[in-house]
Automatic annotation (TrEMBL):
<dbReference type="Pfam" id="PF06170">
    <property type="entry name" value="DUF983"/>
</dbReference>
<protein>
    <recommendedName>
        <fullName>DUF983 domain-containing protein</fullName>
    </recommendedName>
</protein>
<keyword id="KW-0812">Transmembrane</keyword>
<feature type="transmembrane region" description="Helical">
    <location>
        <begin position="84"/>
        <end position="102"/>
    </location>
</feature>
<keyword id="KW-0472">Membrane</keyword>
<feature type="transmembrane region" description="Helical">
    <location>
        <begin position="52"/>
        <end position="78"/>
    </location>
</feature>
<keyword id="KW-1133">Transmembrane helix</keyword>
<dbReference type="InterPro" id="IPR009325">
    <property type="entry name" value="DUF983"/>
</dbReference>
């Protein structure tokens, strides 16, 4: 469980202290969050090889799809909005969560390939 909390806080999987990202990025300026190459605390290398984060796109896709389905169920079935409103809300949510998804997907990807034995 602590692993999940560390991942949500974008902390290094190795020492659980260092931050993975330098800055959060800026949604309205379309700034992508910047990453540290290595953990500032324990020097664990986040990008294991060139193109390592290519796979994080699939994690990001899964996160976005799950969020869209969740919003569809909430706004369509429970709040009973019109299809156009539901569509606009889903687009808004996908946009608002894009930076969050970017960070979380990379963090999840790093955690997936990290093992505690070194
Ligand atoms: Zn570390």
């Amino acid at each position: 469980m602590s692993k999940v909390i560390n991942a949500l806080n974008c902390k290094c999987p190795n020492c659980k202290k260092g931050k993975i990202f330098i800055k959060g990025g800026h949604l309205l300026l379309f700034k992508i969050p910047k990453m540290h190459n290595r953990c500032p605390e324990c020097h664990y290398k986040f990008e294991r090889e060139t193109g390592f984060f290519f796979g994080a796109m699939f994690v990001s896709y899964a996160l976005a799809a799950a969020q869209m389905i969740a919003s569809l169920v909430i706004f369509w079935y429970f709040i009973d909005l019109s299809p156009l409103n539901v569509y606009l809300i889903i687009c808004g949510i996908a946009f608002l969560l894009s930076t969050f998804n970017f960070k979380l997907s990379r963090t999840i990807w790093i955690y997936m390939f990290h093992s505690d034995k070194h």
